[in-house]
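Your task:
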Amino acid sequence: MELLVAQLLNGLVYGTLLFLMAAGLSLIFGLMNVVSLAHGSFFMLGAFFGLAVFQFTGSFWLALILAPIPVIILGVLMELVFLRPLYRRGHMDQVLLTFGFTFVAFDLVQTLWGRVVLRLPAPEALQGSVQIGLGVFSTYRLFLIGFGFAVALLLWLFLDRSRLGASRVFSASAWPLPRSAASSPGLSSAFTPAWTPKS
């Protein structure tokens, strides 16, 4: 039973990390019919930006708050400068462009942080353990599970319960969005916030 609980919680942790990476991809494809393979790279950049903030300030929580800001800026710039001109084209051009960005991000990280494995230590509040049944589980991993569920809940509330989210979903149903977005600056700019990576 102890092994089953441990495997279940470990699966929830890895599932949460996969969800955080996949949320942006599914949202952008669902709302804009645009295929982007660069969300894993944004996730990676967010982690390294967070590490840089932690090394500079020594605060895990400040790194958690500040790390998404440069990633959001990069995501918006990527949509405005590179992807918006491709809205008239098919998915293959979008795949090739965003796949190329993964190599750019990978080389950037290796250039700035090297090839060694780096680790961001958990804060003192999350360094303990919690006994669940007969097993002991890391508080930090439980925090990751709770954080992932909180993000999922906020996304659901935004898309399903808010007027702004409902209007975006309604606009996304007016296909073909890429062609109309390419010819309508107002409509295309309305979807730019979707490119703020969910990292």
In short: The chain is about 70% helix and 5% strand. Residues 177-184 have pLDDT under 50 and may be disordered. Residues 2-118+129-150 form one domain.
